[in-house]
Design brief:
The protein is an alpha+beta fold and 925 residues long. The protein has 22 helices and 20 strands. Strand 8 and strand 9 form a beta hairpin. The model is unreliable at 32-50 and 663-925 (pLDDT under 50). The protein binds adenosine-5'-triphosphate (ATP). ATP binds at residues 134-141.
């Protein structure tokens, strides 16, 4: 489709040269003299005072005033009286162009607003021409070619062209070729001809073909691949261009230079008929018009100038003819080589841009006036543009070629597609693999965190269990101490009790203090562990699939849950360990107490029957003292302090001991730690005794006799008998497990914590058999058979075995009732099923034969703590009296405690294993 188009005319005003600038008036000086050529003559002359002035005023919208009126200068002129007839009158001619570029406008901006719009057409098959016109030295070459540092329109155009070709290379094949020529003295010269090839005489010939194309015969065509290459080519061509210094321009181009860029574009998919678009972009740097008088050229330069002027005159005539509808039928293109070359650029199928270069000062007043008038005329020229489409019909041979090309293209596309798919698959596979690797790494990290923290956290939990037990113990001990202190003045027995309990409490506090550090570290580790697992759970990767975060979350939750389970197990182990150790200590102490009770009873009986036994009171006293020493030794070893080391200062309560009244009902106390301190009931009105001392607290107002009122602390046998009869002390005896064994379903009384002990009823199991000796009573206490063994009164070497129950498993031999406070659950006893005396008349202790069954123990009056020698793996054996009348070798309780891995060092200062030893090894999954 044809489009009507006008020549786009832009005026570029170059900056004043240094020579001009030096002669321009200072714009701030209002007293400057009037200057100018002052003539109306056609010939320009130097200004009156050797000074120039600006002769162009312009606006950005393209309006321009040539030789504008200067009111100030005129006023000065008139003031000075210079107004003779024929004096200078400002031309003040107004023009309107498509663009006016001031001196400050850059090359790039000139390109953007003049040539760039042509490029859209070039790739669509529309021809385009850009030419620079103007007087010599006005900036044509600068605008078209520029300098290496500030390239002109050619470089900017080619850079843009190659970029656009690159953008459409998928769809089109674009061939670019260029030629560069000059018209010098009406001869066409090839500026790109290979070196050494002589130029034809008279220059290259111009041909015009039937398709209205002008071609130069024999012109070299080069195929550039990028803008830089073009720039190099143009610079090389410019170097070969005829240039000579003239008076007006030191680097004056003495020829017209024409760069022709041919662009042929064909679609990449060829059909039977190929539709190619062909376009030519011509970029022309004309030689400058010159006035011979101004240039002062002589000889050759003058001939050059004449030829230049001739061709420019021909161009002007063509432009005039093109603008005149009357003369449009005949345009004198043939008058010069230049107009012949520009024939289709000016009046044919071409979009044309004319960049008119002018100087800004009055030094070029006339040239500038002519140029602007010329340009104003040129903008009237109308061209008709149409798309240059070439339909190439193929003959048979070309079909084969086209098919081959198509096949090649199909192959190329298939390979590309396959490559892309392979790349995509590879990329997806790599992404997945990376994601899986990252997820696995994160999971491993979570697992590693667990492994790293497990030991500390489990140790902490075990310690927490131990500490909880210690705290519970401490609470009980402190309550008891408070109770003792509340009683006022202390008797020696209470002082002893207080000292021992304080000592145990101090040891316990020390342990808790030490454990606090472990607990704190475990707590820090737990916080860090939870935080780190949380962070690892929240980790995200760009290329992870959706399941990855869920997987991580699950992994973290599992690890946290496993850790919590392990911690709970260890805390339970810690508690169990503390409880077992505690139970064994209790068993040891109760055993000790029971035996002591029995022996004291024996002593009392012996005192009663001094004449029969033939023993002296002194001997009995010695034995009793031995009991004290052995007990002290045991105290030292079990709780770390002995009664002897306490050195009581209080009054003795011994002489005030008296028997409690007959109980109202049978009541039992449970055998929990809290009940160790069970005291006689006050409500009975009887004097109370302490379980852990031989005397009751000598409280005033409770019916106790003051020890001072006793005739002697150490009674003679007769007195002792009297005292024994009179006082018939009743002890708060722990429950007889035999009762439980007799009927396991019998509900067990509640274990009562210390604060409620005062109100608790208690009674000896044998209150209805008051004549039964204390020794016999002691046998009814069900104690850990292993922890109880009778020792020789004098030395360990003279020990005699009393029973065999020590062979049983250490943990299974704890006969002490284990029950929660206030929990009415039946007591657990280990040996209950083996008690042969269940339901057979008088209850018997399961720990050994009854008094009638067993040999007399006169030779073993003193209780001896003996260890159990059995291994943990040994099965529970029936009580000794069922198994064999022969008694096994007795072992000391200390040994038993040593062999037990559950006794804590704080309580047992002998070489036993710590809670973290193998027996307490966590049972992790
Ligand atoms: N816009 C411009 N900015 C800076 N310098 C310019 C500008 N235009 C021209 N000049 C300078 O003016 C001088 C003359 O310019 P140029 O050679 O391009 O003129 P010309 O019109 O090509 O002259 P001729 O017709 O004689 O070849 C050069 O030194 C050039 O660098």
């Amino acid at each position: 489709m044809d489009n009507a188009a006008s020549i786009n005319v832009a005026v570029r005003i170059r900056p004043p040269s240094a020579w001009e600038a030096a002669r321009l008036p200072d714009p701030t000086d209002s007293t400057r003299p009037f200057f100018g050529d002052g003539q109306l003559s056609a010939q320009a002359r130097p200004t009156t005072f050797g000074q120039f002035r600006n002769i162009i005023a312009y606006e950005e919208d393209g309006s321009l005033i040539y030789d504008p009126m200067d009111p100030q200068a005129e006023a000065i002129y008139r003031t000075k009286g210079y107004l003779p007839p024929g004096t200078y009158r400002y031309k003040h001619r107004k023009y309107q162009y498509d663009n006016v570029f001031g001196p400050h406008i850059t090359q790039k901006e000139v390109f953007e607003r003049t040539t760039k719009p042509l490029l859209d057409g070039i790739l669509d098959g529309y021809n385009g021409t850009v030419f620079a016109y103007g007087a010599t030295g006005c900036g044509k070459t600068h605008t078209i070619s520029g300098t290496p540092t500030d390239p002109g329109i050619i470089y900017a155009t080619m850079a843009e062209l190659f970029q656009r070709i690159d953008e459409r290379k998928e769809d089109y094949t674009v061939d670019v070729s260029l030629s560069f020529l000059e018209i010098y003295n009406e001869e066409i010269r090839d500026l790109l001809s290979p070196a050494g090839v002589p130029a034809p005489r008279g220059g290259l010939a111009i041909r015009e073909d039937s398709a209205n194309r002008v071609t130069v015969v024999g012109l070299t065509e080069v195929v550039p691949t990028n803008a830089d290459e073009v720039n190099t080519i143009v610079q090389a061509g410019n170097a070969r261009r005829t240039q000579s210094p003239t008076h007006a321009n030191a680097t004056s181009s003495r020829s017209h230079a024409v760069l022709q860029v041919s662009v042929i574009q064909s679609p990449r998919t060829p059909g039977v008929t190929e539709e190619r678009t062909v376009a030519t972009l011509s970029i022309i740097d004309l030689a400058g018009s010159e006035r011979a008088s101004a240039t002062k050229n002589m000889g050759k330069r003058m001939v050059e100038g004449a030829n230049i002027n001739k061709s420019l005159l021909a161009l002007g005539n063509c432009i005039n003819a093109l603008c005149e509808p009357r003369t449009r039928a005949h345009i004198p293109y043939r008058n010069s080589k230049l107009t012949r070359l520009l024939k289709f650029s000016l009046g044919g199928n071409c979009r044309t841009v004319m960049i008119v270069c002018v100087a800004p000062t009055s030094a070029h007043l006339e040239d500038t006036g002519n140029t602007l008038a010329y340009a104003n005329r040129a903008k009237e020229i109308k061209t008709k543009v149409s798309k240059n489409i070439m339909d190439v019909d193929r003959h048979v041979g070309q079909y084969v070629e086209a098919i081959n090309r198509l096949n090649d293209e199909v192959r190329e596309l298939k390979a590309k597609l396959a490559g892309e798919m392979a790349m995509e698959n590879e990329a997806v596979r790599r992404r997945r693999a990376n994601a899986a690797k990252a997820v696995e790494a994160a999971r491993n990290e979570i697992r590693a965190l667990a492994t790293k923290s497990r030991t500390m956290l489990c140790t902490g939990s075990f310690t927490a269990g131990n500490t909880a037990a210690s705290n519970a113990k401490l609470e009980v001990i402190r309550a008891r101490l408070k109770q003792i202190e509340a009683g006022g003045e202390l008797t020696s027995d209470l002082e002893t009790e207080k000292a021992l309990l304080s000592s145990v409490a101090t040891a316990e506090e020390e342990v808790i203090k030490k454990e606090a550090d472990t607990l704190s570290r475990a707590s820090n580790t737990a916080a860090m562990f939870t935080t780190n697992v949380g962070l690892a759970q929240k980790r995200k990767g760009e290329d992870w699939d959706e399941s990855a975060p869920a997987l991580l979350k699950m992994e973290g939750d599992v690890v946290l849950a496993e850790m919590r389970a392990a911690q709970a197990e260890h805390e339970r182990d810690g508690l169990k360990n503390a409880l077992t150790g505690q139970a064994q200590v209790i068993a040891a102490l109760v055993g000790m107490l029971a035996r002591t009770n029995a022996l004291v009873g024996d002593g009392a009986r012996m005192l009663n029957t001094l004449s029969e036994s033939g023993t002296t009171p002194e001997e009995i006293a010695t034995k009793l003292q031995t009991i004290v020493e052995i007990n002290d030794k045991a105290f030292s070893e079990v709780i770390g302090v002995s009664t002897k080391s306490v050195a009581p200062t209080g009054k003795t309560a011994f002489t005030n001991l008296s028997a409690p009244p007959a109980p109202a009902a049978r009541k039992r106390t449970s055998f929990t730690g809290a009940n160790i301190a069970v005291r006689p009931r006050q409500s009975t009105g009887a004097r109370r005794t302490s379980l852990n001392g031989l005397g009751s607290p000598g409280r005033r107002g409770h019916g106790f006799k003051s020890p001072r009122k006793q005739s002697s602390m150490r009674p003679n046998p007769a007195n002792a008998r009297k005292v024994a009869e009179k006082k018939s002390v009743r002890w708060a005896v722990p429950i007889d497990p035999a009762a439980d064994l007799a009927d396991p379903t019998t509900p067990t009384p509640k274990a009562t914590a210390l604060p409620t002990i005062e109100s608790q009823e208690w009674e000896d199991d044998r209150t209805d058999d008051s004549s039964t000796s204390a020794a016999e009573a002691s046998t009814s206490m069900s104690l850990d058979a292993a922890a109880l063994s009778w020792g020789n009164s004098n030395s360990a070497s003279a020990q005699k075995p009393q029973d065999q129950s020590g062979d049983q498993d250490p943990e299974s031999k704890v006969l002490i009732t284990l029950k929660e406070e206030d929990e009415p659950t039946p007591r657990r006893t280990v040996l209950g099923d083996h008690n042969p005396s269940v339901g057979k008349g008088r209850r018997k202790s399961i720990t050994g034969p009854t008094r009638s069954d067993r040999p007399r123990r006169r030779s073993s009056l003193i209780p001896q703590l003996s260890p159990r020698h059995s291994s943990a793996s040994k099965a529970v054996e029936p009580p000794a009296h069922r198994k064999s009348p022969k008694k096994p070798k007795r072992n000391s309780l200390l040994g038993a405690l040593s062999s037990s891995r559950m006794i804590r060092p704080s309580l047992l200062k002998i070489g036993v294993e710590t809670p973290t030893s193998t027996s307490a090894k966590p049972s992790w999954k």
